[in-house]
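agent> Task received from the user: take the single chain below, predict its 3D structure, and emit structure tokens. No templates, no multimer pairing.
agent> Plan: (1) validate residues, (2) run structure prediction, (3) serialize to tokens, (4) report one or two observations.
agent> Step 1 OK, no nonstandard residues flagged.
tool_call: predict_structure(input=
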Amino acid sequence: MIGLVPLVFIIQLYFSNWEVKTENLMLWAIIANVFGILEHINYYNRQLMIDNTSDLNYVIRNRKLKIASLAKDLLENKI
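)
tool_result: status=success, residues=79
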């Protein structure tokens, strides 16, 4: 389903004559779609949120984001 977001975006642009107008809430739709994609990445791929000092230290020390907890559980077949 996430893969269909760009297609929906292109259809929305087509119907609005290839213009992004705030009057027709196109900008809000783009923001919602981007937020949904980031949430998917956060839950199933990489932990995008750095909410404590241990997370910050991990990113500084390893120069990469942590693997998401749900992704680890799915790889280990715990869920």
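agent> Step 4: summary for the user.
The CA atoms of residues 54 and 60 lie 10 Å apart.
agent> Done.
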